[in-house]
Amino acid sequence: MRATAIAATFPYLALKSAWVAGSHIGIPEGSVLRGSSLFWPVVNTMTLLMDAALVVLVLALTRPWGRRIPSWLLLVPGFVASGLLTPIVTGFPAQLLMRAFGVGGDTAGQAPREPFLDGWVFNVVYAGFSVQAFALAGLFVPYAKERWGHLWRRPTGLSAGLRTVAVAAAAGALAFAGAEAYWTLGGTAGLTDALVAARDADAVMVGIVQALCTLMGAAGALLLAFGRGAAGRIPLAAAWVGGAAAASWGLWVSLAALAPGGDPAKKITWALHLAYAGQMITGLLVAVVLTGFLTGFLAARRPA
């Protein structure tokens, strides 16, 4: 499993290394990635380091020295990795299935998209991410069960402050999911004409996955905050996976909106900025509930 996880990072690391070095492999003519701005080299370097950090995380989960690492140094990158990989591992197969039935992508009668990356790049990279996700889950879940599993069996029910945070997360999740549902059903408020025209089946699928992840995270936070029985794995997993996806992708899309170049009419509008900011804040609120849940139990174990 460790070798599989590490091997799955090679395609992405190789592409990012080539791009940082100045190669245009997989980048078509006219793509904003060929611009002279420093934005993309910085982003490529950052994402290269992020995937390299996953290799370090995999080693920490499988080597004896990993046991000596403080919990937060494993949980924080594990949270981010879970958040970035979950929507990919769920949305990418769905998009492939739609394309197999002639839905999504540049289908007949639809205006072609702006050039960004060659199609094979997405297939190779997202396939690698999917393998990474399953391999990392196969390593992280048993490790977490062995190291922190005793926390899952303790009674839930958090302080009034954390219950308020959980309710706020639920409100944020409903607002974000409502906005995504509105746009999915054909709503156009807050979007430019170019964004409406570009909202194809792939974009709809991404929105659905993001909304479901955000709702799942908030539901898990509510169960942790108001539960009375043993915490169990399902509420904790829902809060972890859903909250991580909301926080990580909300932040990532907000940062991607700062990219230079491209069609100005397709730039993210104020409404989308608010939606993604709300998604990110919702994920962070879920993370606060998770932190209170875990640290509260850790404090309870200390002798009086």
What class, by secondary structure content?
mainly alpha
How far is it from the N-terminal to the C-terminal residue, by CA? 42 Å
Any idea what the shape is?
Answer: globular
Give a short account of the largest sheet: none
The number of strands is 0
Transmembrane segments: 38-60, 72-92, 120-141, 162-183, 203-226, 238-259, 279-300
Protein name: LigA protein
Keywords: Membrane, Transmembrane, Transmembrane helix
Organism: Streptomyces bambusae
What is the gist of this entry?
This is LigA protein. This protein is an all-alpha fold. The protein is built from ten helices and no strands.
What does it look like?
The chain is mainly α. Helix 4 crosses helix 5, helix 4 packs antiparallel against helix 8 and helix 8 crosses helix 9. The N and C termini lie far apart (42 Å). It is 71% helix and 0% strand. The protein has one domain. The radius of gyration is 20 Å and the shape is globular. The protein has ten helices and no strands.
Any descriptors?
globular; disordered C terminus; LigA protein
Strand-helix topology:
Layout: H1 2-7, H2 10-20, H3 39-62, H4 71-100, H5 119-152, H6 160-184, H7 193-198, H8 201-226, H9 233-256, H10 270-300
